Amino acid sequence: MDWDDLRIFLAVARADSLSGAGRRLGIDASTVGRRVARLEGALGAKLFVKTPQGYALAPEGERLLPHAEAVEAALSGAEEALSGPGDLTGQLRIGAPDGCANYLLPQVCARLSEAHPQLEIQIVALPRVFNLSKREADMAIAVSQPQAGRLVVQRLTDYQLHLAAHEDYLRAHPPIRSREDLRGHRMIGYIADMIFDRELDYLTETGAEWAALTSNSVSVQMQAIRVGAGLGIVHDFAIPFCPGVRRVLADQISLRRSFWLIRHADDRRSQRMNRLADALAQGIRAEVARLQALVVP
């Protein structure tokens, strides 16, 4: 058994398909299939079960998985030990909710790229939780702390959210001096049955019973507010990107949430991943503080 075979095994286990593994490895699916069959033949064990959804790990594959991941971590550690603590290189895939991905990560990653020119950064913005065990991302940013899994979790920073609307909308509609005045105003928020984390159920805290315009994307919601479609809860750090958007009832409706950085437990032994996590954490904290300071009270 050699590392190249294990590398292909890990790719299939994480992608659940030969084609997905091939894309990750830069080889065609038929080659992946042949290499998996060769490894199974060498071990005398069936590692995967073909299902309508793709390739699932067989019991023997489940037993092999932690050992293959340990080999992967050991090789990565050896490379880091030989290369030393210089510039960060290679690929870093960051999964994040779209608010963070749109309004924070571009600036943070731009500075990280400038400091480490050989680092390839990928930002995956998806309104859902990432599966780090399948390596959908190297690290993920979440709005709540996970309660299960072999993960390393650290609190990044708190951030503020407020009810907001564009000044054009506010001029064209009745004044809002209290929560009661919100009745009759158009509200913007999340699609209720697509809220993947209870921390995103913002409108409930305003007392609104329904929203006239909804999206599973906080960035789409913000753009709807920007064009005067109504009022919605927005991140304070997003307001500087939308001239004319103003906070409403800031002294009565104020939400606090947190960002969490999540990594696979095996990565804590990696000097490279620790350095990347530290740089990302420092960058996000600084960027949230900078942008929130720009918001007019």
From TrEMBL:
Is Transcription one of the keywords UniProt gives this record? yes
Enumerate the Gene3D superfamilies for this protein.
3.40.190.290, Winged helix-like DNA-binding domain superfamily/Winged helix DNA-binding domain
Per the record, the similarity remark reads: Belongs to the LysR transcriptional regulatory family.
Q: Which PANTHER family does the annotation name?
A: TRANSCRIPTIONAL REGULATOR (PTHR30579), TRANSCRIPTIONAL REGULATORY PROTEIN (PTHR30579:SF3)
Could you tell me the keywords of this UniProt record? DNA-binding, Transcription, Transcription regulation
One GO term in the molecular function aspect is:
DNA binding
* Natural source organism: Paracoccus denitrificans (strain Pd 1222)
Domain (HTH lysR-type): give its ranges.
1-58
Which CDD domains does the UniProt record give?
PBP2_LTTR_substrate
The protein's superkingdom reads Bacteria
| Keyword Mitochondrion tagged | no
Q: What is the lineage of its organism?
A: Bacteria, Pseudomonadati, Pseudomonadota, Alphaproteobacteria, Rhodobacterales
**A family per Pfam:** HTH_1
Task: Give the protein's recorded name.
Answer: Transcriptional regulator, LysR family
Identify the InterPro entries for this entry: LTTR, LysR_HTH_N, LysR_subst-bd, WH-like_DNA-bd_sf, WH_DNA-bd_sf
